[in-house]
Amino acid sequence: MLAKIAFRNIFRNRRRTLITLLVLVMGAAGLILFGGYKEMNFWGLRESTIRNRLGHLQLYRKGYLSADSQKPLEYGLEDVAEIRVAVEKDPRVAMTAAQITFMGLISNGEKSETFLGTAVEPAKDRQMRSQRLESGRELSDGEMDALMVGRGLARSMNVKIGDYLTLMTTTVTGSLNAMDFQVVGTFMTGVKEYDDRAIKVPLSGAHYLLNTKKIEKLLVMLKQTEDTDAVMADVQALATSRNWPIEMRPWSDLAGFYHQVVLIFNGIFGFIGTIVFVIVVLSVANTIMMNIFERTREIGTLMAIGTKRKRIWALFLLEGAMIGLIGGVLGLVFGAVLGQVINYAQIQLPPPPGYTAGYQLRILMRPSILVSSFALSIVTATLSSIYPAFKASRLNIVDALGHI
Amino acid sequence: MTDSVIALRGVRKCYRLGKVEVPALSGIDLEIQAGEFVALAGPSGSGKTTLLNLIGCLDKPTAGQILLDGGDITQTDLDRLADIRASKIGFIFQTFNLLPVLTAFENVEYPLLLSGVPRKQRQERVREWLKHVGLTGQAEQRPDQLSGGQRQRVAIARAMVTRPVLVLADEPTANLDSETAAQILDLLNEINRETGVTFLFATHDPAIISRAHRRIRLRDGRIAADERNHQLIEGVSNAR
To answer: Which of A26, A310, A400, B58 sits 20 to 30 Å CA-CA off A42?
Structure first.
């Protein structure tokens, strides 16, 4: 009966209920959209960070992470064939890729610049799609002296496809070495500071230049990012049992930028969520308070004929909760539909700071966000009814009965 | 003494208006026996409603003692008072005070829910009382679909359905035309005769006053007169 009374009372002042519901619906839908946008950015940034750059796991020679090496590749991995075969046998693993990063000077005979070089296995690197080709072509297997240059660096060196550039760096023994590479393409990663310094060469060319057969690290790519911890534990166990002199890091330990973005976005999300929460609380509290004011004599009557105070309290709390429930359901539907419409509309956003390319506005419908927006609607509506409902239950019966 | 439904001893009630204490009742001694049909008359501000509120466990006296059905209610806590109101007292209001969102049936059923009467029994009793007040056909209508007289009948059924020992009515006919008021009064009279439940009215209505077995006149918070209509009382005794 209490629920019946509460439910019917919701539809007594339709306009007021409608406005309250609108606030709840907008609040819930807003959180769904913003939350979905946030999740999409997290997901996109995470996957691109992993797949284009870091890999899910990175394996190094034991000591690499803690030692302060004096010479390049002092802590480099040797004879990784056995490790690669064993790790790639795991069905969750998509591939492994060997890499060396090195620094030095790049020169066109007139001008020299410092560079950040990455030596890659060309086929694997193409699979990782770690860069966008701007001109020319990607590196291919079997060539040693091919070179790709970052967009900014290419511009400052005035590089054309087919030009020869000299790379100069320190070998593993500490002596200087230089070698000519032919430019086959230019690329961009989207991060300007990196593109101003970056070059890519085949692993075989780097081995020759650095005078070694070692690699710096082995990237392990998985099919599913969610498997990272499990695979890492298995590889660790494998390494222990076979006495491989390696150590490893998961992507989450290496993705500092990703974690910063998550932190900032979550902060903004929390701030906006709090504002929405406060608006909803005030709005629902106002509605319930007005309901109580209008129904003072009714409350007096209910109490006079023997309704206890806690039931009066429960009645108005229930009304708030029901409004929250209706608002939550409508907000869920509205938010989900609007999210789909936005995804379908393919709205383009300008590039984020530090990037050179824009991206599409997409809303990721995570169940956790849908559920929490829905729950937030019910919880806020109920919470905001607590005090007005309490006031109603404390009304003096005689005064309430005399209320016009 | 064992028959008295209400007993008041030296009851006083003061209200605070700002810094001034306004006495509403100053020393009421009163006893009402079971089955009486009592009118509480007096000019506005004489304390009728205040007295009704005190007897109805809606308010507490500043001083004195009130016994309801043999029990002292002056020291009772609020929740217990709610229980007493739900089980022993029926209320009829000037403005009917039905719950607008409930049907006539649900309005009558509500107090039975409070006292935890099982569903089947509840529905039987509601039907019985709706029939008694002549509203069987209007059971599913909401108050705004009923006339004033019909609404007051629902309110009477709601007051009676819990089988109270006492029904308190504050100006029950004041919002009705004289014909409807007379019908309502007949109905109350009949219920009093049939069930023996005690009725106490606060009223200005000469029709009620003239048909009451006992008239208590209040003036300035005191009982100015307390007279019995022996003719009517004998009539009732003979009818029983």
So the answer is: A26
Whether A375 and A273 have beta carbons less than 8 Å apart is answered as no
Identify the three-state secondary structure at position A328.
helix
Contact by Cβ (8 Å): A179, A205:
yes
Give chain A positions within 8 Å (CB) of B93: 301, 401
Nearest CB among B82, B109, B111 relative to A308 is that of: B82
* CA–centroid distance for B5 within its chain: 13
Say what the pLDDT of residue A352 is. 66
For B161, the closest chain A residue by CA position comes to: A305
Q: Is A90 exposed, middle or buried (0-12, 13-18, 19+ CB in 10 A)?
A: middle
- To the nearest 10°, report the CA torsion of A296, A302, A308, A311: -80
CB pairs under 8 A between A and B: 62
What are the φ and ψ backbone dihedral angles of B29, each rounded to 5 degrees? -120, 125
Residue A181 and residue A165 in contact, taking contact as beta carbons nearer than 8 Å: yes
Question: Are A401 and B58 a contacting pair at CB < 8 A?
Answer: yes
The token pair that represents A252 in the structure block? 């989450």
Q: Which residues of B touch A306 (CB under 8 A)?
A: 82-83, 85-87, 111, 114-115
The residue of chain A nearest to residue B106, with distances taken between CA atoms, is A1
String of DSSP letters for chain B: -TTEEEEEEEEEEEEEETTEEEEEEEEEEEEEETT-EEEEE--TTSSHHHHHHHHTTSS--SEEEEEETTEE-TT--HHHHHHHHHHHEEEE-TT----TTS-HHHHHHHHHHHTT--HHHHHHHHHHHHHHTT-GGGTT--GGGS-HHHHHHHHHHHHHTT--SEEEEESTTTTS-HHHHHHHHHHHHHHHHHH--EEEEE---HHHHHH-SEEEEEETTEEEEEEE-HHHHHHHHHH-
* Chain A positions in Cβ-Cβ contact with residue B95 (cut-off 8 Å): 297
Q: What is the mean pLDDT of each run of 10 residues along chain A (404 residues)?
A: 91 91 92 90 87 90 82 84 91 94 92 94 86 88 92 93 94 91 91 91 94 92 92 93 92 91 91 89 90 92 94 94 94 93 88 69 88 91 93 92 78
A217-222 and A57-61: which strand pairing? antiparallel
Q: What domains are defined for chain B? A: 4-97+165-234 (3.40.50.300)
- Tell how many helices (H) and how many strands (E) occur in chain A: 14, 12
* Distance, CA of A393 to chain centre: 47
Taking only the tens place, the pLDDT of each residue in B2-14 is 578 999 999 999 9
pLDDT for B58 beyond 90: yes
Residue A320's Cα: distance from chain center in Å?
A: 35
Residues of A with CB below 8 A from B83's CB? 306, 308
Tokens for A292? Answer: 């109580």
Q: What is the CA radius of gyration of chain A?
A: 31
Token readout for A150 is: 């970052």
Interface confidence: ipTM more than 0.95 = no
How many other C-beta atoms are found inside a 10 Å radius of the C-beta of residue A122?
A: 20
**Closest listed residue to residue B213, CA positions, set B196, B234, B194, B197:** B234
Per-residue confidence band for B1, with pLDDT thresholds at 50, 70 and 90: very low
Determine the pLDDT at residue A52. Answer: 82
